[in-house]
């Protein structure tokens, strides 16, 4: 997607600082290199579409649709990752092809966990006052001989996480004459709200037009198939170790009555000096050991080095 530059970043609006813009361009260049040079099978038919201006998630998907020649699409956001093997895709697509009611099938997430979702969705239908008659959701679950072992639970509101859908459904309904997606926004923002409104005003029969379902592949808890990567709080492994070490040090200092000024309040060179001034046992705690003296000078130096590698204020 495109972006606009400004003094402060507003990521959801596509506004970023010059520094973040450069990082994004570097990321896109790396993707392009994979598309052009990586011999792995999953890159052979890939194409990177770089939009010249800000579209937002929904319209970015719309911009890619003219390049799709398959009857189904898998929509994946950049910050979603599969948490376990997904070896049933062909079965799933055969089931969707055989049953036109399955227009969009979302993958289970922590939020949309199939066993809990059934109960939560039933309560939601009552909360938003969907008129009677409306069936119990348990009685509306679909199965198909084309995909044994898979069940499809009605999803009462669109969720933008990873999903499979009919390409024609995307072209003719999601981006169709009802204009259910707004430029700059997510699909779930407008379409999801309209879906809820239709449930309240038209009733349960309106769900058939939306055709949104949640996959239940029978996996034991935790059933989530897709997880969320939090880019704002992502840390390299060594950064995470250092932060955890600082937290252990502060906790040990508090427990022993050491003044807070003797323990680091921020990672960086100042933090390393504070660690050096702290009692030996507290430094050992920062190393990840039980409270007690370090086993060697090298061990103490390694602990201090973890603080020195991080910029002050992190």
Structural key phrases:
314 residues, 5-stranded mixed β-sheet, disordered C terminus
Could you walk me through the main structural features you see in this protein, from its secondary elements to its overall organization?
- Helix 8 packs antiparallel against helix 10 and helix 9 runs antiparallel to helix 11 (297-308).
- This protein is α/β, with parallel strands linked by helices and 314 residues long.
- The strands form 3 sheets. A 5-stranded mixed beta sheet has the order 3-7-5-8-6. Strands 1-2 form a two-stranded parallel sheet.
- It is globular and about 60 Å long.
- Residues 260-295 and 306-314 have low confidence and may be disordered.
- It has helices at 18-37, 56-64, 89-98, 114-127, 167-174, 187-201, 207-210, 237-256, 269-277, 280-286, 297-308; strands at 4-5, 15-16, 72-75, 80-82, 104-106, 151-154, 163-166, 212-216, 226-228.
Topology:
Elements: E1 4-5, E2 15-16, H1 18-37, H2 56-64, E3 72-75, E4 80-82, H3 89-98, E5 104-106, H4 114-127, E6 151-154, E7 163-166, H5 167-174, H6 187-201, H7 207-210, E8 212-216, E9 226-228, H8 237-256, H9 269-277, H10 280-286, H11 297-308
Parallel strand pairs: 1-2, 5-8
Antiparallel strand pairs: 3-7, 4-9, 5-7, 6-8
């Amino acid at each position: 997607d495109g972006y606009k530059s400004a003094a402060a970043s507003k990521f959801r609006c596509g506004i970023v600082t010059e520094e973040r813009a450069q990082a994004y361009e570097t990321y896109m260049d790396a993707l392009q290199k994979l598309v052009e040079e990586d011999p792995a099978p999953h890159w052979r038919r890939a194409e990177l579409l770089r939009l010249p201006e800000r579209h937002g998630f929904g319209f970015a998907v719309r911009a890619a649709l003219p390049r799709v020649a398959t009857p189904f699409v898998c929509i994946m956001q950049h910050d979603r990752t599969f948490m376990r093997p997904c070896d049933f895709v062909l079965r799933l697509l055969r089931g969707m092809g055989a049953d036109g009611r399955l227009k969009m099938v979302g993958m289970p997430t922590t939020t949309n966990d199939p066993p809990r979702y059934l109960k939560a969705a039933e309560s939601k239908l009552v909360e938003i006052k969907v008129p009677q008659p409306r069936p119990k959701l348990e009685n509306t679950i679909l199965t198909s001989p084309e995909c044994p072992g898979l069940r499809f639970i009605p999803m009462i509101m669109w969720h933008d996480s990873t999903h499979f859908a009919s390409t024609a459904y995307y072209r003719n309904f999601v981006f169709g004459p009802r204009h259910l997606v707004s430029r700059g926004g997510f699909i779930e923002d407008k379409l999801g709200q309209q879906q809820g409104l239709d449930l309240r005003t038209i009733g349960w029969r309106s769900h058939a037009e939306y055709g949104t379902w949640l996959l239940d592949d029978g996996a034991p808890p935790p059933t989530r198939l897709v997880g969320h990567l939090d880019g704002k709080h992502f840390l390299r492994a060594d950064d995470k170790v250092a932060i955890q070490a600082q937290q252990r040090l502060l906790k040990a200092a508090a427990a022993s009555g050491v003044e807070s000024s003797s323990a680091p309040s921020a990672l960086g060179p100042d933090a390393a000096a504070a660690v050096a001034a702290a009692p030996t046992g507290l430094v050992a705690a920062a190393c990840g050991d039980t409270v007690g003296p370090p086993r060697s000078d090298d061990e103490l130096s390694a602990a201090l080095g973890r603080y020195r590698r991080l910029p002050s204020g992190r």
